[in-house]
């Protein structure tokens, strides 16, 4: 995976991951190529997971009127 691929948006990484899954689901990929594609897919999945965690962290922070940042905890 190229360094600039980490700079792709979540949606671009997800689309690349979905494309690999479609290719592997055909069953027509030689084993060596399938292993390589699987490894690429795992890297895309990891990047997507990291981006989701970053987004979750960002939206669970609240900024008070005084500028203090606090964790958002929904009332149960």
Descriptive keywords:
76 residues; Helix Hairpins; 2 helices; mainly alpha
List the helices and strands and how they pair.
Elements: H1 10-25, H2 31-59, E1 61-63, E2 69-71
Antiparallel strand pairs: 1-2
Helix pairs in contact: 1-2
Task: Describe the fold and architecture.
The model has no long low-confidence stretch (mean pLDDT 86). The longest helix has 29 residues, at 31-59. Helix 1 packs antiparallel against helix 2 (31-59). This protein has one domain: Helix Hairpins. The chain is 59% helix and 8% strand. By secondary structure, the protein is mostly helical. It is elongated and about 60 Å long. A two-stranded antiparallel ribbon has the order 1-2. It starts with 9 loop residues before the first helix and ends in a 5-residue tail after the last strand.
Write a concise synopsis of the structure shown.
By secondary structure, this protein is mostly helical. The protein has one domain: Helix Hairpins (Orthogonal Bundle), CATH 1.10.287.
By secondary-structure content and strand pairing, the structural class works out as: mainly alpha
Distance between the termini: 42 Å
- Supply the CATH architecture: Orthogonal Bundle
What is the average per-residue confidence, as pLDDT, rounded to a whole number? 86
What is the radius of gyration computed over CA atoms, rounded to a whole number of angstroms? 18 Å
Shape: elongated
CATH topology group: Helix Hairpins
Name the helicity range. 55-70%
Strand order of the largest sheet: 1-2
In what range is the share of β-strand residues?
A: 5-15%
Number of domains: 1
- Give the CATH class: Mainly Alpha
By DSSP, the count of extended strands is: 2
Order of helical and strand elements: HHEE
Low-confidence stretches: none
The number of distinct helices, counting runs of at least 4 residues, comes to: 2
Biggest β-sheet description = 2 strands, antiparallel
């Amino acid at each position: 995976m190229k360094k600039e691929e980490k700079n792709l948006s979540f949606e671009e990484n997800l689309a690349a991951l979905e494309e690999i899954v479609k290719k592997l689901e055909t069953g027509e990929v030689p084993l060596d190529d399938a292993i390589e594609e699987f490894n690429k897919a795992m890297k895309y999945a990891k990047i997507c997971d990291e981006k989701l965690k970053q987004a979750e962290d960002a939206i669970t922070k609240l900024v008070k009127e005084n500028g203090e940042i606090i964790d958002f905890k929904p009332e149960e």
